[in-house]
């Protein structure tokens, strides 16, 4: 019994330490984090390590509430279309997973209090169905803000891999459109974004039809 109690206390202490670290990093990023232009300069000055620097900057920027569209467009400006798209998508997935992990393992109670009313319940319902399809659709058409989805799904019973895969696949169209803007292909950015929206509607229609069919059979 004593060993179990000590184990629970050690877990609580570890979680508290991680929570304090997360709060410290978040406050530091908000109060002293550099602006987008400074972050771009850091990446440009990194030389051969520029891709790794960009991914680090992406994580810092998301926690500092820098706009993700600007971070994605910066990938096109700095790296061109191909490498820029790979890095921007990777940055988005890593940032989403970091916030998912924070909500699940570090600051669940603090995160839950700050989510919009009803958002957690809605996400819990989605997580209990076809998890991959739910994440994919929310990424293609973000009816719920990006960070709310990340933190919110971290509070649900959703497994990590459907979340990661849905974020990866669903993030490509909108990210590609913004990377194109950064490259200078503004004329192509809109068609890519519209194509992503059409794909999301198609996925939603299939999902709705299958759900209705299951309800009819039951």
Show the helix and strand layout.
Blueprint: H1 2-32, H2 36-44, H3 50-63, H4 68-79, H5 81-106, H6 108-114, H7 119-127, H8 131-140, H9 146-154, H10 160-183, H11 186-217
Helix pairs in contact: 2-3, 2-4, 3-4, 3-5, 4-5, 4-10, 5-6, 5-9, 5-10, 7-9, 8-10, 8-11, 10-11
* Termini gap: 46 Å
Shape: globular
Structural class: mainly alpha
Mean pLDDT, as a whole number? 75
Approximately how much beta-strand content do the residues carry?
Answer: under 5%
Number of distinct beta strands:
0
Q: What is the tally of helical segments?
A: 11
User: How many separate domains?
Assistant: 1
Q: Indicate the percent of residues in helices.
A: over 70%
The topology string of helices and strands comes to HHHHHHHHHHH
What's the main sheet like?
A: none
Q: Which regions have little confidence, pLDDT < 50, spanning 5+ residues?
A: none
Subcellular location: Cell membrane
Membrane topology: Multi-pass membrane protein
Pfam family, one: VTT_dom
Keywords: Cell membrane, Membrane, Transmembrane, Transmembrane helix
Structure description:
The chain is mainly α and 218 residues long. It has one domain (36-210). It has helices at 2-32, 36-44, 50-63, 68-79, 81-106, 108-114, 119-127, 131-140, 146-154, 160-183, 186-217. Helix 7 (119-127) crosses helix 9 (146-154). The longest helix is centred in the last third of the chain and has 32 residues, at 186-217. The protein starts with a helix and ends with a helix. The mean pLDDT is 75. It is a multi-pass membrane protein. Belongs to the TVP38/TMEM64 family. Pfam families: VTT_dom. This is TVP38/TMEM64 family membrane protein.
């Amino acid at each position: 019994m004593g060993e179990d109690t000590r184990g629970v206390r050690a877990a609580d202490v570890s979680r508290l330490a991680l929570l304090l670290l997360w709060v410290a990093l978040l406050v530091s990023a908000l109060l002293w984090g550099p602006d987008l232009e400074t972050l771009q300069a850091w990446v440009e000055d990194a030389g051969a390590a520029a891709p790794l620097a960009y991914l680090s900057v992406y994580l810092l920027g998301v926690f500092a509430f820098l706009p993700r569209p600007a971070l994605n467009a910066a990938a096109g400006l700095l790296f061109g279309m191909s490498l820029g798209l790979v890095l921007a998508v990777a940055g988005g997935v890593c940032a989403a997973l970091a916030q998912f992990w924070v909500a699940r393992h570090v600051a669940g109670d603090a995160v839950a209090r700050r989510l919009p009313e009803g958002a957690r319940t809605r996400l819990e319902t989605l997580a209990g169905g076809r998890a991959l399809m739910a994440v994919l659709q929310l990424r293609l058409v973000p009816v719920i803000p990006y960070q709310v989805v990340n933190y919110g799904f971290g509070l649900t019973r959703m497994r990590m891999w459907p979340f990661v895969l849905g974020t990866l696949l669903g993030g490509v169209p909108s990210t590609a459109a913004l990377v194109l803007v950064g490259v200078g292909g503004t004329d192509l950015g809109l068609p890519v974004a519209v194509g992503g929206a059409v794909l999301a509607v198609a996925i939603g229609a299939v999902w709705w039809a299958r759900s209705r069919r299951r309800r009819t059979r039951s």
